[in-house]
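CO-FOLDING WORKSHEET

Operator: S.A.
Ligand of interest: zinc ion
Run index: 331
Mode: holo prediction, single chain
Checklist:
[x] sequence pasted
[x] SMILES validated
[ ] output reviewed
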Amino acid sequence: MSVLSKPYFHDEAAAFAFVERIIWNGEPVCPHCGVVGRAYALKAVRSKPSKKNPEGVVRHGLKKCGACRSQFTVRIGTIFEESHLPLHKWLQAIYLMCSSKKGISAKQLERTLEVTYKTAWFLGHRIREAMRDTAMTPMGGEGMTLEVDETFLGRQATIFVSGKGWQQRRGTGDMRKIVTLVERGGRARSVHVPSLRKEDIVAVMAHADRASVLNTDQAQHYRRIGTEFAAHETVDHGRDEYVRYDGDVVTTTNTIEGYFSIFKRGMKGIYQHCSEKHLQRYLAEFDFRYSNRSATGCEDQERAMRAVLGVVGKRLTYRGGVNHRLQAASA
Ligand SMILES: [Zn+2]
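OUTPUT RECEIVED:
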């Protein structure tokens, strides 16, 4: 049986059951009054008749709160609330985005899911929102190595030089600047920064646990702040040094170069262009897939379930740990 033949990708009732298991873990939370586990299912309720559906359509996943008597479904308070797209198509879109290493374009989603381009574009961005790490716990920690590096995206503006015509400007001034922190063997977090000036680097470094060992290249802007860490080791790319071994200690920024390589191939090959406004969302997408990659034991299906868990708004409270819910849902 292929992954794509799972019932929750085709059957709306199965899709609701799947999402409810992940988000509620058997105890529905009323989004109106916040009471946990007192709601009951309203079965066979149909929507009002319309011209298209004279008998109405079945309202899947409808619950009624035993405390405040209001009705709700698991979609309320999540990114699923913001569209009329059937839940099973949302799950298809989430799976596609989670299992494609370099991302999936809105055009591809449009063709595969048979939705309009507008819907596909909206879906992509809402799922990126679900992938965004809202906990923002510090990166690294005692005994961990944290690699930090920057990359540039886009092209320099062209300027007119008399006698030479239109020329591309040099340097990285107009390019978008991204600083990424990668825990060796762990998560990635990327920040689109306005510049590489001190205040911007300091702001990014607020994400880093100072008990970590910091690995960077020899860029000037990491020197002062590097002294705040347990240790700061650098490799000298200018002298062709990429890895240094000192007993068991490995100094390198190769892990982060690997991250940038996937990110750039995705941005060039799949997304092609993205406005400055949306860049941080694409970064969240690549961070999410990297932080939940198969090398850390997280395969496609589990990655998709973790993304589903990310759809939940912060105003609701839930019982049970994340791992417990994921196990229950995959059973
Ligand atoms: Zn209630």
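REVIEW:
Residues 314-325 have pLDDT under 50 and may be disordered.
The first strand starts at residue 39 and ends at 41.
[x] output reviewed
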